[in-house]
TrEMBL record:
Protein name: succinate dehydrogenase
Transmembrane annotation, as ranges: none
Main location class: membrane
Protein family per UniProt: Belongs to the FAD-dependent oxidoreductase 2 family. FRD/SDH subfamily.
Record's keyword annotation contains Flavoprotein: yes
Keywords: Cell membrane, Electron transport, FAD, Flavoprotein, Membrane, Oxidoreductase, Transport
Entry membrane topology: Peripheral membrane protein
Keyword Membrane: yes
Gene Ontology molecular function: electron transfer activity; flavin adenine dinucleotide binding; succinate dehydrogenase (quinone) activity
UniProt subcellular location: Cell membrane
Organism for this UniProt entry: Sphingobacterium alkalisoli
Amino acid sequence: MMIDAKIPTGDLADKWSNYKDNAKLINPANRKKLDIIVVGTGLAGSSCAATLAEQGYNVLSFCFQDSARRAHSVAAQGGVNAAKNYKNDGDSVYRMFYDTIKGGDFRSREANVYRLAECSLALIDQAVAQGVPFAREYAGYLANRSFGGVQVSRTFYARGQTGQQLMIGAYQALMRQVSLGKVKMYTRHEMLDLVVVEGKARGIITRNLETGELESYAANAVVLATGGYGKVYYLSTLAMGCNTSAIWRAHKKGAFMSGVSWIQFHPTCLPQIGETQSKLTLMSESLRNDGRIWVPKKMGDERVLNDIPEDERDYYLERRYPAFGNLSPRDISSRAAKERIDAGCGIGPMKNAVCLDFSKAIKEQGRDKIEEKYGNLFRMYEKINGVDAYKEPMLISPAAHFTMGGLWVDYELMTTIPGLFALGEANFSDHGANRLGANSLLQSCVDGYFIAPYTIPNYLSENLKSEKITTDHPAFIEATNNVKEKLNKLLSSSGHLSADHFHKTLGKLLYDKCGLSRSKASLEQAILEIRALKESFDNELNITGDYQVNSELEKAGRVSDFLELGELMCYDALQREESCGAHFREEYQTPDGEAIRNDDDFCYVSAWKWKGESEQPELHKENLIFETVKLAVRSYK
């Protein structure tokens, strides 16, 4: 079954302008009569809430953290892309658009990706006006550096803390509206269900994490900006609290999930060093600008790394992808690292890492220059590992990171439920099968500052005369009762295993069978094992504590959602009989290990409909039409 993305007519470069010129508006007097719920206070959520409130709407903002500033956007390090062409090295909006389409292995919409590149120009100006301290050249111009998957310098950065600095800008914009009374802020509130009235999203049910009470909130529209679900692998670069529950509960109310098997493994992460670890630490991809990646040519080489001579080192990215070398895209770089590790050339205590070596860059540029660019990252590495990376190579390894999949949205960022919008990493929208580095901060900001503030009013303009809904409506009562039933079921479990046990088991299962590579056999086996794990979860889970303040209860609810999502990920990967981007099916590769994409049969976005607890999901498709770019074999050689 095909679904419509509602892409505007006209030439590619004119589509967004045409949309804005024809979008319906709401006069200021009517805006203050309308309520909008925004769940999530990262870059997408904060920017959207602040901008809508600035326009005059009443905004209710929710996050499960104790402060909006603790949103995971702060963890993004390396930079944010924009086609400003400050380096005069050939960049343009079109080139950025093409790099992103190609980087996503031609599995994203032309119109959305072009709009992303087009709006990137305004974002930098907005961020500078907010006081974001981007790095600058000696003359005062904003500095740029390059990132994986491109051959120009378009990444703006604030050392290795770009996400944090952009987040401070969005946070202060949000808190200004809170102080003006246009945004009501609800911290320590976790969304547990979406309320749908007559087919439209009209509110949410939350749990107050300080009291345990369930609370209902009604609005004219709901925005989910709750981030990605990479924590489904347990070991990932994401914070411990990151989860899929908000978008998954919306999915079970009718919102389609798309491309959920497109999971990006970041190539520059600190490797796992023990079985008791609960998360992995990300090192910025910007390090690949100057660091060279290699492994010993000899399998099982136990020598001190600095003692291994140049001719016995395999700079495998430079060898396999000479045009891009160490700046090859993340999916390709991560798979190449795994291939070398699996071949027995891995290093470190668990033989699961590769080298990121700065000796050549320090020799050519001097330590001071490298310290100026990456000093905080080198300090972080030494603090964690006790190793001075100025003197010996860093050890890095691929790790689950960004999710290109999420809720399906149309050109307006609206899901298949009218009135429910999804922004940032919570939607599938702009990245296709692989996200280029430094595009995540861009998408989150662009969605929140520049796109949703046009598309949400366009939707609301047709609903001005809709009946005012309150939390006394039967739909709110029914949703609250359903949430209570689920929580009581979790609390009544009388088993002996913790939620963490099931999360770890699921994570390892998915990493082995639906991770950096997949096969038909591994995916079919994974589905059977996840179903068995879900049954075990229902019968053997044990939650200590009671209904009130209880982090184990929160965790169990999130793991329950992860189990269902994990099964859908495997279905999504199983039906896509091709290799593209982060989805690498072992049956579909060239003799030298490169991906074989199948445009004849799989040039579409998968969109899955929830059919019930024990039912297989139903596949819908959004065909991808390429009018401007020519489909080509994705090569970085």
